[in-house]
């Protein structure tokens, strides 16, 4: 009885507030927009038969006919993929240096990476607005040392979105890679060097493959949330920055078209299912490896 | 002892400069006299004064703290239960679905979670306000709590629990007297994580809040959409300060505890 309650309570909570809401999103994506409260039709008040008869895939057909949505999905995928690669390029050397640092420094370095993660995401994105604007800190600096002679336009462009994603998601990339490198047995690299590898070869042939799990975990942790990102494109991006999270938000709050917003969410979920499953597999494998 | 090569020193320096400079600049400019946030016009704390007189921000801060305390507490209870089920629950019907529901919210885009919860609340006719935000925050933070707690549960020595059971504890007492004290640090950090996630959340709160309740991130977002403002800089500085003090003191406390535990274990080993 006790065991049943222990399983049933969190299970029921997640079913009611995580799984069932998705079913509702799916249902509403098949409905039509209506001038009523709630602003869609049909509802179950119409009776079971007419309810199911009125559902159709019209909104999905609409999504394929208007190329705004295709371009938004494609551009989100591109922005998420490129910024994942950039985060990896920026994060790997940091994680590597942390793992090579004297052991008594490591907890402090770890805390320095985690600290920004505890700080408000919104504030960290906002901090860049002051830096990247026309009269911002970066432009003042570049003008001051004479690299450019007129201010660069960075804020409200896609470039600013890349900077924002790399900045805010960097800890998610560093930590799993650091965890993998920290466990790595240094004598393996020495062995490779003794056997005639150059340092670069040893890095490429030994260190990188052994930190593979960390790289994979970090990349998923950046890629998946970046794909649906809303805050960064709406604060740092410009009108030319198309991201699906922002499109969904505007469809819902500005156009009040709930059925189309739901259809956008269903497709985004379908795109994400594959990376999410791959990510979970990777996590499970790691958990089994370490057990 | 290895010495750091120049390459490693450079990447650490540049990396941490990148992570921290934006926040340092933000903090410095919060003490700027000028309304123009990019022009330095002398030191002043006037924006902090303005902030404290701004009732809309204070109200929003109060709602945010209420939501965060409630949701992180519920999330800690539910998340610890879920972790226990995942690690110790053995096999039961729908276990795969259960673990999927624990891990999926961690990577689910917030716009989808927010939209789906809002549609649920409207579907069942629940008025949007503090309660709906608490329900929403509890749901996604319990998953974080459960990941943190289950990693601790996985590494701890199960025979301690079994010993308690053998010595006549009921399974609830064994949990209360043996398991809970051992996993307590993970439960506490789970609570802290849930608390900060709730303080931080803009997207899910925007969907589930409704006109009746406004949280601080919603307020900040609508203010900064119009551009950088010195008041928001001041508010950000206060929030960064609180988090920094909190994280540093939490890590000092846990360091002291683990040192004490080490000493006790050594003493026990010598005595034995």
UniProtKB/TrEMBL annotation, chain A:
It is found in: Cell membrane. It comes from the Bacteria. The keyword Translocase does not apply. CDD domains: TM_PBP2. Keywords: Cell membrane, Membrane, Transmembrane, Transmembrane helix, Transport. The chain crosses the membrane at residues 12-30, 77-97, 109-129, 160-181, 202-227, 258-279. This is ABC transporter permease subunit. The lineage of its organism: Bacteria, Pseudomonadati, Pseudomonadota, Alphaproteobacteria, Rhodobacterales.
Automatic annotation (TrEMBL), chain B:
InterPro entries: Bact_Polyamine_Transport, MetI-like, MetI-like_sf. PROSITE patterns: ABC_TM1. The keyword Cell membrane applies. It is found in: Cell membrane. The chain crosses the membrane at residues 12-31, 60-86, 98-124, 130-153, 174-194, 232-253. Keywords: Cell membrane, Membrane, Transmembrane, Transmembrane helix, Transport. This is ABC transporter permease subunit.
């Amino acid at each position: 009885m006790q065991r049943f309650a222990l399983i049933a309570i969190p299970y029921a909570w997640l079913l009611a507030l995580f799984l069932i809401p998705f079913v509702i999103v799916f249902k509403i994506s098949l409905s039509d927009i209506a001038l009523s409260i709630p602003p869609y039709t049909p509802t179950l008040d119409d009776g079971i038969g007419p309810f199911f008869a009125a559902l159709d895939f019209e909104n999905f057909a609409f999504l394929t006919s208007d190329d705004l949505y295709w371009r938004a999905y494609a551009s989100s995928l591109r922005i998420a993929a490129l910024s994942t690669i950039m985060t990896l390029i920026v994060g790997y050397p940091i994680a590597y240096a942390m793992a090579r640092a004297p052991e008594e420094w490591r907890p402090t370095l770890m805390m320095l990476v985690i600290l920004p993660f505890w700080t408000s995401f919104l504030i960290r994105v906002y901090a860049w607005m002051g830096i990247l604007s026309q009269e911002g800190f970066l432009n003042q600096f570049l003008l001051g040392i004479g690299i450019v002679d007129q201010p660069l336009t960075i804020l409200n462009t896609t470039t600013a979105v890349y900077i924002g994603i790399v900045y805010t998601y960097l800890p998610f990339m560093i930590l799993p890679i650091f965890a993998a490198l920290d466990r790595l047995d240094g004598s393996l690299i020495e062995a490779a060097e003794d056997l005639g590898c150059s340092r670069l070869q040893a890095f490429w042939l030994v260190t990188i493959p052994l930190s593979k799990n960390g790289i994979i975990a970090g990349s998923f942790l950046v890629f998946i949330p970046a794909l649906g990102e809303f805050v960064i494109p709406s604060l740092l991006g410009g009108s030319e920055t198309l991201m699906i999270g922002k499109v969904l938000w505007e469809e819902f709050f500005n156009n009040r078209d709930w059925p189309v917003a739901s259809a956008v969410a269903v497709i985004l979920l379908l795109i994400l299912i594959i990376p999410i499953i791959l990510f979970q597999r990777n996590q499970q494998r790691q958990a089994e490896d370490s057990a | 002892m290895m010495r750091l090569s120049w390459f490693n020193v450079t990447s650490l320096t540049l990396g941490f400069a990148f992570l921290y400079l934006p926040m340092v600049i933000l903090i410095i400019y919060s003490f700027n006299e000028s309304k123009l946030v990019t022009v330095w016009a002398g030191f002043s704390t006037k924006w902090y004064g303005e902030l404290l007189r701004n009732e809309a921000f204070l109200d929003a801060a109060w709602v945010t703290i209420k939501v965060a305390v409630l949701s992180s507490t519920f999330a800690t209870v539910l998340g610890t239960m879920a972790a226990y089920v995942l690690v110790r629950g053995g096999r039961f019907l729908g276990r795969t679905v259960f673990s999927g529901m624990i891990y999926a919210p961690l990577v689910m885009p917030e716009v989808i979670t927010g939209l789906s919860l809002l549609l649920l609340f409207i579907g069942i006719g629940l008025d949007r306000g503090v309660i709906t935000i608490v329900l929403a925050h509890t749901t996604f933070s319990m998953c974080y709590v459960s990941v943190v707690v289950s990693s601790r549960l996985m590494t701890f020595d199960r025979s301690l629990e079994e010993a308690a059971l053998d010595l006549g504890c009921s399974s609830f007492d064994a949990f209360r007297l043996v398991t809970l004290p051992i996993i307590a640090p993970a439960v506490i950090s789970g609570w802290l994580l849930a608390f900060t996630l709730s303080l931080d959340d803009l997207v899910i709160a925007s969907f589930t809040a409704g006109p009746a309740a406004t949280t601080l991130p919603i307020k900040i977002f609508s203010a900064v959409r119009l551009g950088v403002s010195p008041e928001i800089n001041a508010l950000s500085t206060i929030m960064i300060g609180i988090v920094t003090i909190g994280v540093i003191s939490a890590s000092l406390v846990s360091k002291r505890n683990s040192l004490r535990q080490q000493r006790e274990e050594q003493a026990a080993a010598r005595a034995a």
